[in-house]
Request: fold
Amino acid sequence: MRGMNRLGSVLAMAFAVSFVATPTAMPQQKNFSVGPVTAAPGARASGFLEVPKGVDEGTRIPVTVINGAKPGPVLGLVAGTHGYEYAPILAMQQLPAKVDPAGLSGTIIVVHVANLPAFLGRAIYYTPGDGKNLNRVYPGRADGSISERIAYAITREVIQKSDYLVDLHCGDGNEALRPYAYWMTSGTAAVNEKSREMVLAFGLDHIVIDTERSTDPNNSAYTSNTAITRGKPSITTETGLLGRVDEESVALVETGIFNLLRHFKMLEGEPKRVEHPIWIDRNEVLRSPTTGTFHARVQPGQTVEQGALLGVLTDFFGQTIQEIRAPFAGEVLYVVGTPPVSHGEPVGMIGRVKKD
Reply:
């Protein structure tokens, strides 16, 4: 019996050792779906989110899902909120082919063109059909007009499924713009700090500190703010101008995204963070008091003093209606570079550089 007890003890110890030594099962990557578009682990898939007909015509949203072979965070990328902002749209067309899903940890959701009616209609700011600005109607409504239904679909299928979000913009077809990004502070302290790290990792040196967004998730208005008010760190970037498709502007978008993929450890390597950020602690969008013709007198990136002449608004006969002047000293982040301007539309944006 003593021999049997000794044998039992040895077997028990061996079992215990083998149990301890067995490696813990690693989490496995699963299929990932955005609407009807499903990508298996280590693969990519493209297709359309359908926005059904409602009070007006429906549309579709082209998306690509890049599903990494290994688990990791979900990064949502939204381009084409405004139809004439081409640089991010072209960058997002090129991105999927440059990311190998086999070497990716996590998942990337690419919205190639959020607002297809505006893109095909070559429309600035507003969606043809309902005349609304898609980046002012979030989180949208299932029974709303076309812009609201697009926002609803993106909120449900992209923002809610992402861990982090980037809303990719550039100077619209009428805007001459210098590259910059927005850091919104409408979230919790933890979300705000993660968003701050994102904006530094993206790599643009001019960063607008935006403290004026709504904290109400049911009235979030903006794409990025919709993510932030749902606990998801997010930034907005501006890279490109005047509807141009220059390689430099497209490359800024691509470089920023790869920086973020490295920042989140979704790809190997270290991001090239901005080393000397220029924080903009006050900004003002200047709007036209009437409909007419705008003639810019400054360039994007130009430093101006308070009261400096930014542009002249004339009637259709060339008679001066009003001079548009800087409300405070700062830098021209963008200025309208084409003549037509309607009442209430932007003519430029000034940012004040934070002293410290």
Q: What stands out?
A: Helices lie at 2-21, 86-98, 116-120, 146-159, 189-202, 223-228, 247-263. The CA atoms of residues 256 and 301 lie 20 Å apart. Residues 1-23 have pLDDT under 50 and may be disordered.
